[in-house]
Amino acid sequence: MVMTSVRLPLGALLALTTAAFVTVLTEALPAGVLPAMSADLGVGESATGQLVTVYAIGTAVTAIPLVAATASWRRRRLLLVAVAGFAVANTVTAVSAVYAVTLGARFVAGVAAGVVWALLAGYARRVAPVELAGKAIAVVMAGIPLALSLGIPAGTFLGQAVGWRAAFWVMTGIAVVLVGWIVVAVPDFPGEASGRRQVVAALRMPGVVAVLVVTAAFVLGHNILYTYIATFLGAVGMGGSVDVVLLVFGVASIVSIWLVGASIDRRLRALTVAATLLVAVAAAGLLFESPVAVFVAVGLWGLGWGGVPTLLQTAVAHAGGPAADTAQAMLVTLWNVAMAGGGVVGGVLLDAAGPTSFPWSVLVLLVPVLVVVRRFPRALS
Protein backbone atom coordinates (compact mmCIF):
# COMPACT_ATOMS: atom_id res chain seq x y z
CA MET A 1 0.00 0.00 0.00
CA VAL A 2 2.67 2.52 1.03
CA MET A 3 5.03 1.39 -1.77
CA THR A 4 2.55 2.52 -4.43
CA SER A 5 2.00 5.94 -2.87
CA VAL A 6 5.25 7.69 -3.89
CA ARG A 7 3.51 11.01 -4.43
CA LEU A 8 1.80 10.99 -1.08
CA PRO A 9 3.02 13.64 1.41
CA LEU A 10 4.25 11.00 3.82
CA GLY A 11 5.70 13.39 6.39
CA ALA A 12 2.29 14.93 7.01
CA LEU A 13 0.38 11.67 6.66
CA LEU A 14 2.63 9.80 9.09
CA ALA A 15 2.14 12.55 11.66
CA LEU A 16 -1.60 12.00 11.28
CA THR A 17 -0.99 8.24 11.52
CA THR A 18 0.79 8.87 14.80
CA ALA A 19 -2.18 10.92 16.02
CA ALA A 20 -4.40 7.90 15.33
CA PHE A 21 -1.82 5.71 17.09
CA VAL A 22 -1.86 7.91 20.21
CA THR A 23 -5.65 8.02 20.21
CA VAL A 24 -6.03 4.24 20.12
CA LEU A 25 -3.16 3.73 22.55
CA THR A 26 -4.74 6.09 25.06
CA GLU A 27 -8.14 4.48 24.57
CA ALA A 28 -7.24 0.82 24.84
CA LEU A 29 -4.24 0.56 27.18
CA PRO A 30 -6.38 0.06 30.31
CA ALA A 31 -7.58 -3.21 28.76
CA GLY A 32 -4.02 -4.52 28.77
CA VAL A 33 -3.15 -3.43 32.32
CA LEU A 34 -6.62 -3.72 33.81
CA PRO A 35 -5.81 -6.04 36.77
CA ALA A 36 -2.86 -3.89 37.88
CA MET A 37 -4.82 -0.64 37.57
CA SER A 38 -7.69 -2.20 39.48
CA ALA A 39 -5.46 -3.21 42.37
CA ASP A 40 -3.61 0.12 42.47
CA LEU A 41 -6.74 2.27 42.37
CA GLY A 42 -8.54 0.08 44.89
CA VAL A 43 -11.58 -0.76 42.77
CA GLY A 44 -12.93 -3.90 41.10
CA GLU A 45 -12.02 -4.94 37.57
CA SER A 46 -15.49 -4.13 36.23
CA ALA A 47 -15.13 -0.60 37.66
CA THR A 48 -11.68 -0.24 36.09
CA GLY A 49 -13.19 -1.32 32.78
CA GLN A 50 -15.29 1.83 32.95
CA LEU A 51 -12.08 3.83 32.33
CA VAL A 52 -12.55 2.74 28.73
CA THR A 53 -16.25 3.51 28.96
CA VAL A 54 -15.86 7.07 30.24
CA TYR A 55 -13.27 7.75 27.54
CA ALA A 56 -15.81 6.71 24.95
CA ILE A 57 -18.52 8.79 26.62
CA GLY A 58 -16.25 11.85 26.45
CA THR A 59 -15.94 11.36 22.71
CA ALA A 60 -19.58 10.47 22.14
CA VAL A 61 -21.13 13.46 23.90
CA THR A 62 -18.72 16.08 22.56
CA ALA A 63 -17.75 15.08 19.00
CA ILE A 64 -20.64 16.67 17.11
CA PRO A 65 -20.93 19.79 19.34
CA LEU A 66 -17.17 20.38 19.17
CA VAL A 67 -17.05 19.86 15.41
CA ALA A 68 -19.74 22.53 15.10
CA ALA A 69 -18.26 24.91 17.68
CA THR A 70 -14.75 24.77 16.20
CA ALA A 71 -15.78 24.70 12.55
CA SER A 72 -14.13 28.08 11.91
CA TRP A 73 -10.83 27.15 13.61
CA ARG A 74 -7.74 26.60 11.53
CA ARG A 75 -7.33 22.83 11.21
CA ARG A 76 -3.74 22.56 12.49
CA ARG A 77 -4.53 24.68 15.53
CA LEU A 78 -7.44 22.40 16.40
CA LEU A 79 -5.34 19.27 15.91
CA LEU A 80 -2.58 20.66 18.15
CA VAL A 81 -5.06 21.45 20.93
CA ALA A 82 -6.43 17.91 20.77
CA VAL A 83 -2.98 16.27 20.92
CA ALA A 84 -2.00 18.53 23.81
CA GLY A 85 -5.17 17.33 25.54
CA PHE A 86 -3.84 13.77 25.33
CA ALA A 87 -0.57 14.85 26.94
CA VAL A 88 -2.39 16.48 29.85
CA ALA A 89 -4.88 13.64 30.36
CA ASN A 90 -2.27 10.89 30.26
CA THR A 91 -0.06 12.80 32.69
CA VAL A 92 -2.92 13.09 35.18
CA THR A 93 -3.70 9.38 34.73
CA ALA A 94 -0.06 8.50 35.40
CA VAL A 95 0.08 10.40 38.70
CA SER A 96 -3.44 9.96 40.04
CA ALA A 97 -4.10 7.62 42.95
CA VAL A 98 -7.81 8.49 43.13
CA TYR A 99 -10.28 6.61 40.94
CA ALA A 100 -12.56 9.64 40.45
CA VAL A 101 -9.64 11.81 39.29
CA THR A 102 -8.55 9.10 36.87
CA LEU A 103 -12.10 8.93 35.51
CA GLY A 104 -12.03 12.69 34.93
CA ALA A 105 -8.71 12.48 33.10
CA ARG A 106 -10.06 9.70 30.90
CA PHE A 107 -13.10 11.81 30.04
CA VAL A 108 -10.81 14.67 28.93
CA ALA A 109 -8.82 12.23 26.82
CA GLY A 110 -12.06 11.08 25.22
CA VAL A 111 -12.94 14.68 24.34
CA ALA A 112 -9.56 15.05 22.64
CA ALA A 113 -10.16 11.80 20.79
CA GLY A 114 -13.48 13.04 19.42
CA VAL A 115 -11.74 16.03 17.86
CA VAL A 116 -8.92 13.93 16.41
CA TRP A 117 -11.21 11.33 14.85
CA ALA A 118 -13.43 14.02 13.36
CA LEU A 119 -10.35 15.62 11.75
CA LEU A 120 -8.23 12.73 10.51
CA ALA A 121 -10.09 11.43 7.46
CA GLY A 122 -10.81 14.91 6.13
CA TYR A 123 -7.27 16.07 6.84
CA ALA A 124 -5.84 13.08 4.97
CA ARG A 125 -7.97 13.85 1.94
CA ARG A 126 -6.92 17.51 1.93
CA VAL A 127 -3.17 16.97 2.18
CA ALA A 128 -3.09 14.28 -0.56
CA PRO A 129 -3.67 14.49 -4.31
CA VAL A 130 -7.30 13.84 -5.19
CA GLU A 131 -6.53 10.60 -6.99
CA LEU A 132 -4.74 9.24 -3.90
CA ALA A 133 -7.25 10.31 -1.27
CA GLY A 134 -8.35 6.75 -0.50
CA LYS A 135 -4.81 5.54 0.00
CA ALA A 136 -4.06 8.58 2.15
CA ILE A 137 -6.91 7.66 4.50
CA ALA A 138 -5.66 4.06 4.61
CA VAL A 139 -2.15 5.27 5.56
CA VAL A 140 -3.55 7.38 8.39
CA MET A 141 -5.82 4.60 9.62
CA ALA A 142 -2.79 2.30 9.81
CA GLY A 143 -2.16 4.00 13.15
CA ILE A 144 -4.98 1.89 14.59
CA PRO A 145 -3.47 -1.59 14.01
CA LEU A 146 0.01 -0.24 14.78
CA ALA A 147 -1.25 0.83 18.18
CA LEU A 148 -2.86 -2.55 18.68
CA SER A 149 0.12 -4.58 17.44
CA LEU A 150 2.95 -2.50 18.91
CA GLY A 151 1.64 0.07 21.36
CA ILE A 152 -0.76 -1.99 23.45
CA PRO A 153 1.44 -5.10 23.76
CA ALA A 154 4.45 -2.89 24.56
CA GLY A 155 2.41 -0.93 27.08
CA THR A 156 1.12 -4.14 28.61
CA PHE A 157 4.65 -5.53 28.90
CA LEU A 158 5.92 -2.26 30.35
CA GLY A 159 3.03 -2.20 32.81
CA GLN A 160 3.80 -5.73 33.95
CA ALA A 161 7.55 -5.06 34.18
CA VAL A 162 7.74 -1.66 35.90
CA GLY A 163 4.13 -0.63 36.59
CA TRP A 164 1.20 0.61 34.55
CA ARG A 165 1.91 4.27 35.36
CA ALA A 166 5.12 4.15 33.35
CA ALA A 167 3.11 3.20 30.26
CA PHE A 168 0.97 6.33 30.59
CA TRP A 169 4.10 8.47 31.04
CA VAL A 170 5.42 7.08 27.75
CA MET A 171 2.17 8.08 26.05
CA THR A 172 2.59 11.60 27.38
CA GLY A 173 6.06 11.71 25.84
CA ILE A 174 4.77 10.52 22.47
CA ALA A 175 2.08 13.21 22.50
CA VAL A 176 4.63 15.93 23.26
CA VAL A 177 6.87 14.80 20.39
CA LEU A 178 3.83 14.67 18.09
CA VAL A 179 2.97 18.30 18.83
CA GLY A 180 6.36 19.33 17.45
CA TRP A 181 6.01 17.02 14.45
CA ILE A 182 2.64 18.51 13.53
CA VAL A 183 4.03 22.05 13.72
CA VAL A 184 6.88 21.12 11.38
CA ALA A 185 5.30 18.71 8.89
CA VAL A 186 1.51 19.11 8.73
CA PRO A 187 0.16 21.91 6.53
CA ASP A 188 -2.55 24.19 7.84
CA PHE A 189 -6.01 24.59 6.32
CA PRO A 190 -8.86 26.98 6.99
CA GLY A 191 -11.95 25.91 8.89
CA GLU A 192 -15.21 25.00 7.23
CA ALA A 193 -18.85 25.94 7.48
CA SER A 194 -20.73 24.81 10.57
CA GLY A 195 -22.37 21.40 10.37
CA ARG A 196 -25.27 22.18 12.73
CA ARG A 197 -27.85 22.22 9.94
CA GLN A 198 -26.46 19.20 8.14
CA VAL A 199 -27.28 16.49 10.69
CA VAL A 200 -30.77 15.91 9.32
CA ALA A 201 -29.48 16.16 5.76
CA ALA A 202 -26.85 13.51 6.49
CA LEU A 203 -29.41 11.15 8.01
CA ARG A 204 -31.56 11.51 4.92
CA MET A 205 -28.78 10.48 2.56
CA PRO A 206 -29.34 6.91 1.29
CA GLY A 207 -27.11 4.48 3.11
CA VAL A 208 -25.97 6.66 6.01
CA VAL A 209 -28.32 5.14 8.57
CA ALA A 210 -27.42 1.63 7.38
CA VAL A 211 -23.70 2.32 7.88
CA LEU A 212 -24.40 3.74 11.34
CA VAL A 213 -26.36 0.62 12.33
CA VAL A 214 -23.50 -1.61 11.16
CA THR A 215 -21.08 0.57 13.12
CA ALA A 216 -23.10 0.36 16.33
CA ALA A 217 -23.46 -3.42 16.33
CA PHE A 218 -19.94 -4.23 15.12
CA VAL A 219 -18.15 -1.87 17.51
CA LEU A 220 -20.28 -2.91 20.47
CA GLY A 221 -19.48 -6.58 19.95
CA HIS A 222 -15.77 -5.94 19.45
CA ASN A 223 -15.44 -3.77 22.55
CA ILE A 224 -17.33 -6.09 24.88
CA LEU A 225 -14.59 -8.63 24.23
CA TYR A 226 -11.58 -6.33 23.79
CA THR A 227 -12.16 -4.23 26.90
CA TYR A 228 -12.08 -7.32 29.10
CA ILE A 229 -9.62 -9.41 27.11
CA ALA A 230 -7.20 -9.67 30.05
CA THR A 231 -10.02 -10.90 32.27
CA PHE A 232 -11.19 -13.39 29.64
CA LEU A 233 -7.68 -14.77 29.20
CA GLY A 234 -7.31 -15.13 32.95
CA ALA A 235 -10.51 -17.16 33.07
CA VAL A 236 -9.23 -19.63 30.45
CA GLY A 237 -5.82 -20.03 32.09
CA MET A 238 -3.89 -17.62 29.86
CA GLY A 239 -3.58 -14.63 32.17
CA GLY A 240 0.19 -14.51 31.69
CA SER A 241 -0.10 -14.29 27.89
CA VAL A 242 -2.03 -11.04 27.51
CA ASP A 243 0.83 -9.17 25.84
CA VAL A 244 1.49 -12.01 23.37
CA VAL A 245 -2.20 -12.38 22.54
CA LEU A 246 -2.50 -8.64 21.89
CA LEU A 247 0.61 -8.80 19.69
CA VAL A 248 -0.96 -11.54 17.58
CA PHE A 249 -4.15 -9.49 17.31
CA GLY A 250 -2.25 -6.37 16.29
CA VAL A 251 -0.06 -8.06 13.68
CA ALA A 252 -3.14 -9.62 12.11
CA SER A 253 -4.78 -6.20 12.15
CA ILE A 254 -1.87 -4.70 10.20
CA VAL A 255 -2.27 -7.40 7.57
CA SER A 256 -5.98 -6.61 7.49
CA ILE A 257 -5.58 -2.91 6.90
CA TRP A 258 -2.99 -3.55 4.19
CA LEU A 259 -5.40 -5.86 2.36
CA VAL A 260 -8.25 -3.39 2.79
CA GLY A 261 -6.15 -0.46 1.58
CA ALA A 262 -5.15 -2.38 -1.52
CA SER A 263 -8.70 -3.05 -2.75
CA ILE A 264 -11.17 -0.88 -0.84
CA ASP A 265 -12.09 1.23 -3.85
CA ARG A 266 -13.28 -1.86 -5.76
CA ARG A 267 -14.56 -4.24 -3.07
CA LEU A 268 -15.96 -2.27 -0.16
CA ARG A 269 -19.03 -4.44 0.42
CA ALA A 270 -17.22 -7.76 -0.10
CA LEU A 271 -14.51 -6.71 2.36
CA THR A 272 -17.14 -5.74 4.93
CA VAL A 273 -18.86 -9.12 4.62
CA ALA A 274 -15.50 -10.90 4.89
CA ALA A 275 -14.55 -8.89 7.99
CA THR A 276 -17.85 -9.76 9.68
CA LEU A 277 -17.51 -13.46 8.96
CA LEU A 278 -13.90 -13.56 10.15
CA VAL A 279 -14.79 -11.96 13.48
CA ALA A 280 -17.74 -14.35 13.87
CA VAL A 281 -15.51 -17.39 13.25
CA ALA A 282 -13.00 -15.96 15.73
CA ALA A 283 -15.66 -15.55 18.43
CA ALA A 284 -16.77 -19.14 17.88
CA GLY A 285 -13.16 -20.28 18.15
CA LEU A 286 -12.75 -18.61 21.54
CA LEU A 287 -15.51 -20.83 22.90
CA PHE A 288 -13.08 -23.79 22.82
CA GLU A 289 -10.92 -22.03 25.46
CA SER A 290 -7.72 -23.92 24.64
CA PRO A 291 -4.46 -21.96 24.09
CA VAL A 292 -4.14 -23.07 20.47
CA ALA A 293 -7.76 -22.21 19.72
CA VAL A 294 -7.41 -18.84 21.42
CA PHE A 295 -4.33 -17.84 19.44
CA VAL A 296 -5.89 -18.92 16.13
CA ALA A 297 -9.13 -17.15 17.00
CA VAL A 298 -7.34 -13.95 18.01
CA GLY A 299 -5.43 -13.98 14.72
CA LEU A 300 -8.71 -14.28 12.78
CA TRP A 301 -10.24 -11.58 14.97
CA GLY A 302 -7.44 -9.16 14.11
CA LEU A 303 -7.60 -10.11 10.44
CA GLY A 304 -11.31 -9.31 10.41
CA TRP A 305 -11.31 -6.24 12.63
CA GLY A 306 -8.18 -4.38 11.51
CA GLY A 307 -9.69 -2.88 8.36
CA VAL A 308 -13.13 -2.18 9.82
CA PRO A 309 -12.47 1.47 10.78
CA THR A 310 -11.26 2.24 7.26
CA LEU A 311 -14.17 0.34 5.71
CA LEU A 312 -16.83 2.12 7.73
CA GLN A 313 -15.29 5.60 7.43
CA THR A 314 -15.04 5.14 3.66
CA ALA A 315 -18.61 3.82 3.50
CA VAL A 316 -20.07 6.76 5.43
CA ALA A 317 -18.05 9.23 3.34
CA HIS A 318 -19.49 7.71 0.16
CA ALA A 319 -23.02 7.58 1.52
CA GLY A 320 -22.92 11.06 3.05
CA GLY A 321 -22.25 12.87 -0.21
CA PRO A 322 -22.38 16.64 0.37
CA ALA A 323 -22.98 16.03 4.09
CA ALA A 324 -19.99 13.66 4.40
CA ASP A 325 -18.19 15.67 7.09
CA THR A 326 -21.25 15.70 9.32
CA ALA A 327 -21.87 12.03 8.63
CA GLN A 328 -18.27 11.37 9.69
CA ALA A 329 -18.79 13.20 12.99
CA MET A 330 -21.95 11.17 13.53
CA LEU A 331 -20.05 7.94 12.92
CA VAL A 332 -17.38 9.02 15.42
CA THR A 333 -20.09 9.75 17.98
CA LEU A 334 -21.90 6.47 17.46
CA TRP A 335 -18.63 4.55 17.42
CA ASN A 336 -17.82 5.84 20.86
CA VAL A 337 -21.34 5.30 22.17
CA ALA A 338 -20.85 1.68 21.14
CA MET A 339 -17.44 1.65 22.84
CA ALA A 340 -19.01 2.95 26.03
CA GLY A 341 -21.73 0.35 25.67
CA GLY A 342 -19.06 -2.32 25.32
CA GLY A 343 -17.58 -1.37 28.67
CA VAL A 344 -20.97 -1.24 30.38
CA VAL A 345 -22.45 -4.37 28.80
CA GLY A 346 -19.18 -6.23 29.31
CA GLY A 347 -19.17 -5.26 32.97
CA VAL A 348 -22.73 -6.50 33.41
CA LEU A 349 -21.92 -9.77 31.63
CA LEU A 350 -18.77 -10.19 33.71
CA ASP A 351 -20.69 -9.87 36.97
CA ALA A 352 -23.75 -11.82 35.86
CA ALA A 353 -22.45 -14.62 33.62
CA GLY A 354 -18.65 -14.54 33.77
CA PRO A 355 -16.06 -13.72 31.11
CA THR A 356 -16.76 -16.77 28.97
CA SER A 357 -20.05 -15.13 27.95
CA PHE A 358 -18.18 -12.51 25.89
CA PRO A 359 -17.73 -14.57 22.69
CA TRP A 360 -21.45 -15.38 22.64
CA SER A 361 -22.30 -11.68 22.79
CA VAL A 362 -20.08 -11.03 19.77
CA LEU A 363 -21.86 -13.72 17.76
CA VAL A 364 -25.28 -12.32 18.62
CA LEU A 365 -24.34 -8.76 17.66
CA LEU A 366 -22.83 -9.73 14.30
CA VAL A 367 -26.20 -11.06 13.10
CA PRO A 368 -27.70 -7.58 12.46
CA VAL A 369 -24.44 -6.54 10.79
CA LEU A 370 -24.80 -9.26 8.16
CA VAL A 371 -28.51 -8.56 7.75
CA VAL A 372 -27.97 -4.85 7.07
CA VAL A 373 -25.04 -5.41 4.71
CA ARG A 374 -27.14 -7.86 2.69
CA ARG A 375 -30.30 -5.72 2.64
CA PHE A 376 -28.63 -2.41 1.90
CA PRO A 377 -25.84 -3.22 -0.57
CA ARG A 378 -25.69 0.34 -1.93
CA ALA A 379 -24.64 1.63 1.51
CA LEU A 380 -21.41 -0.33 1.22
CA SER A 381 -20.63 -0.20 -2.46
Q: CATH architecture, please?
A: Up-down Bundle
Tally of DSSP β-strands: 0
CATH topology: Growth Hormone, Chain: A
The CATH superfamily label reads MFS general substrate transporter like domains
Strand content: under 5%
**What composes the largest sheet?**
none
Structural class: mainly alpha
Seen as an oligomer or otherwise, the chain set is single chain
Shape: globular
> Which regions have little confidence, pLDDT < 50, spanning 5+ residues?
1-5
Comma- or semicolon-separated keywords:
17 helices; Growth Hormone, Chain: A; mainly alpha; single chain; transmembrane helix; transmembrane transporter activity; MFS_dom
Structure description:
The chain starts with 9 loop residues before the first helix and ends in a 6-residue tail after the last helix. It is globular, with a radius of gyration of 19 Å. Helix 4 runs antiparallel to helix 5 and helix 13 runs antiparallel to helix 14. Mean pLDDT is 85; it is low at 1-5. It is an all-alpha fold. The longest helix is centred in the last third of the chain and has 30 residues, at 324-353. It contains 17 helices and no strands. The protein has a single domain (10-380), classed as Up-down Bundle (Growth Hormone, Chain: A), CATH 1.20.1250.
